[in-house]
Design goal:
258 residues; Stationary-phase Survival Protein Sure Homolog, Chain: A; nine-stranded mixed β-sheet; two-stranded antiparallel ribbon; 6 helices; 24% helix; globular; binds manganese (II) ion
């Protein structure tokens, strides 16, 4: 087995090392990861500047790009052959609910799925911990990877694994939950009297929904959410079907009425 490991916390992050140590049991590991922290990079791809990949250890490449760049470059260039699996993480901090859309960790798994390679994103819900112990998360990552390699994944699907701090009660199959958004922007004044803003400074809650990723972790369980690439909201078709779509057919340059 050949496994590509990446992350968005950077190639020196302890979560990545814990993951590599544990996944070695499955086969050959190659690391292609950002040379610095790129958390919140989402699914961005570097198109307007060259990328450099430096082999800082045997089979470990530090790339001056995003997690998505790393997966792309790894599969298309740096790896000797197509990997059997891509594992991204272990992220410091959970990636659940709406936060998934900002996540570079999850985007790396997304990119692998686009390229037809089975993928797993792994996060430890540890943002508040001074010292994060990645041991349990690494064990769950190994067990989940084994299942993926054994059974394969449904088409266009990858797994988003979140593990709580401490020893999990077990694991639950969940759906993506919802955050409760509050005052996300904090406004302050710098020492010279100019305003500055800080996004996401406060701790946000989540909606307590049975079966969600947030709920599983709040109850001490690890969570596996199957995610897919098709963002279409099929539940909206009925409602949108009642619109008069013919009114949207604007012809020629006469678009003032839109
Ligand atoms: Mn991160």
């Amino acid at each position: 087995m050949l496994i590509l490991v990446t992350n968005d916390d950077g190639i020196h992050a302890p979560g990545l090392h814990a993951l590599v140590d544990r996944l070695t049991a499955l086969g050959q590991i190659m690391v292609v990861a950002p040379d610095r922290e790129r958390s919140g990079a989402s699914h961005s791809l570097t198109l307007h500047s060259p990328l450099r990949a430096e082999e800082i250890r045997p089979s470990a490449f530090a790339v001056d790009g995003t997690p998505t760049d790393c997966v792309n470059l790894g599969i298309n260039g740096l790896l000797p052959r197509r990997p059997d699996l891509v594992v991204s993480g272990i992220n410091r901090g959970g990636n659940m609910g709406d936060d998934i859309t900002y996540s570079g960790t999850v985007a790396a798994a997304f990119e692998a799925t686009l390229m037809g390679v089975p993928a797993l994103a792994v996060s430890l819900d540890a943002s508040q911990a001074v010292y994060a112990d990645y041991g349990a998360a690494a064990s769950y990552a190994l067990a989940t990877s084994r299942q993926i390699l054994e059974h394969g994944l449904p088409a266009d699907t990858f797994l988003n694994l979140n593990v709580p701090l401490g020893e999990p009660q077990g694991v639950r199959l969940t759906r993506q939950g919802k955050r409760r958004y509050g005052d996300m922007v904090i406004e302050k004044q710098d020492p010279r009297g100019r305003k500055y803003y800080w996004i996401g400074g406060g701790e946000l809650g989540f909606q307590a929904e049975e079966g969600s990723d947030f709920q599983a972790l709040a109850q001490g369980f690890a969570s596996i959410t199957p995610l897919h690439l098709d963002l279409t909201n099929y539940r909206s078709f009925d409602e949108l079907g009642r619109w008069s779509l013919q009114d949207l057919n604007v012809e020629g340059p006469h678009k003032e009425g839109m």
